[in-house]
Amino acid sequence: MTSLPLISVTDGDGATARRSSMPPRHLADLDLAGRRSAVSELGEQAFRATQLSTHYFGRLERDPAGMTDIPAAARDRLTEQLLPKLLTPVRELACDDGETRKALWRLHDNSLVESVLMGYGDRVTVCISSQAGCGMACPFCATGQAGLTRNLSTAEIVDQVVYLAGVAQSGVMGGEARRLSNVVFMGMGEPLANYNRVIAAVRRLTSPSPEGLGLSQRHITVSTVGLVPAMRKLAEEDLSVTLALSLHAPDDDLRDELVPVNQRWKVAEVLDAAWAYAARTGRRVSIEYAMIRDVNDQPWRADLLGRLLAGRLAHVNLIPLNPTPGSKWDASPKPVEREFVRRLRAAGVATTVRDTRGREIDGACGQLAASEVEA
């Protein structure tokens, strides 16, 4: 049996992460009032905080040289203290005619994280990381097998979004400027194990400019493998984000293996927390289910999943597994996948199959970082 991941959710910060390597303070770590205080402490007038914020969040400008309405001396002082460089690009790959772009970043302590920009007909989505590595130890996931390095800061999370929103706006996707519409916390890491910083990042992303990016809360998705105390805490945040539960198996015997945290919080308890979130927010829960050949794709498991979800405010998102190199795990054959979908829909459960993107650019979470480490 896969060992239970060592993780604490009592403080919301992931007690096993190395706190000593956190990056310097960035304006995205602070709300607007906090930025004004920080600017005043640096001997500058408080309105400079609004100027900096307007450049960063409103104009997606991350380069201090472009902030020409701030006097050079003040700009140097402010940007040194409030706009430190958090993400250094290592590789950026594109596929799907430029509609999918994956970025690999090196952080100040040499940790590696990934984020992905995906263009669809009616929306532009960014998938971001919330931790460097992951402590959940799911055996079919490249990130889970790498282990947890540390939590990301609020600003490290937000900066991924600001950068990729700027890429979309630059016109490289299909030759026209595109506006970012959706953010999913489905990259590296377990978001609810870095609870406080992820919630702060959500508030930065959804606060109106210049405090934040001004995205709709309903266009933000926060995923979890099922950290029940944090799920229940999220329901009390008065947010209308989508909760995505990475279930991957409807029975405890298999889920104990595929999602080791299930050894602590069983399927029934995890689903109870999901239904409590749906009841409190009125938001449909997304049930994420990676289709793994001959592991979790049997017809009886589709029927069991259908019984668990029937009549609930839930939607199943089936994910064709993107196998990692050398892994024993593989995607379910398409006929098996179609039968799984048929059985769920017959049970009255709304079901879709995720559009697969980025296979040729190591699209699965953690693959690009793993290939860089191996190189």
Automatic annotation (TrEMBL):
According to the record, cofactor stoichiometry and binding are noted as: Binds 1 [4Fe-4S] cluster. The cluster is coordinated with 3 cysteines and an exchangeable S-adenosyl-L-methionine.
Residues that, per the record, bind [4Fe-4S] cluster: C134, C138, C141
The alphabetized UniProt keywords are: 4Fe-4S, Cytoplasm, Disulfide bond, Iron, Iron-sulfur, Metal-binding, Methyltransferase, rRNA processing, S-adenosyl-L-methionine, Transferase, tRNA processing
User: Which reaction does this enzyme catalyse, per its entry?
Assistant: adenosine(2503) in 23S rRNA + 2 reduced [2Fe-2S]-[ferredoxin] + 2 S-adenosyl-L-methionine = 2-methyladenosine(2503) in 23S rRNA + 5'-deoxyadenosine + L-methionine + 2 oxidized [2Fe-2S]-[ferredoxin] + S-adenosyl-L-homocysteine; adenosine(37) in tRNA + 2 reduced [2Fe-2S]-[ferredoxin] + 2 S-adenosyl-L-methionine = 2-methyladenosine(37) in tRNA + 5'-deoxyadenosine + L-methionine + 2 oxidized [2Fe-2S]-[ferredoxin] + S-adenosyl-L-homocysteine
The record ties this protein, via SUPFAM superfamilies, to: Radical SAM enzymes (SSF102114)
A single Gene Ontology MF term assigned here is:
tRNA binding
Which residues hold S-adenosyl-L-methionine? G189, E190, S223, S246, L247, H248, N322
Region Disordered: start-end pairs: 1-22
The GO annotation for biological process reads: rRNA base methylation; tRNA methylation
What is a single cellular component term in the Gene Ontology annotation?
Answer: cytoplasm
Entry EC number(s): 2.1.1.192
Q: Where is the Radical SAM core domain?
A: 120-359
Keyword Transferase included in the entry's annotation: yes
As for family, the record states: Belongs to the radical SAM superfamily. RlmN family.
Additional comments on file? Reaction proceeds by a ping-pong mechanism involving intermediate methylation of a conserved cysteine residue.
Role summary: Specifically methylates position 2 of adenine 2503 in 23S rRNA and position 2 of adenine 37 in tRNAs.
Give the matching HAMAP family.
RNA_methyltr_RlmN
This chain's protein is named: Probable dual-specificity RNA methyltransferase RlmN
Q: What is the lineage of its organism?
A: Bacteria, Bacillati, Actinomycetota, Actinomycetes, Micromonosporales
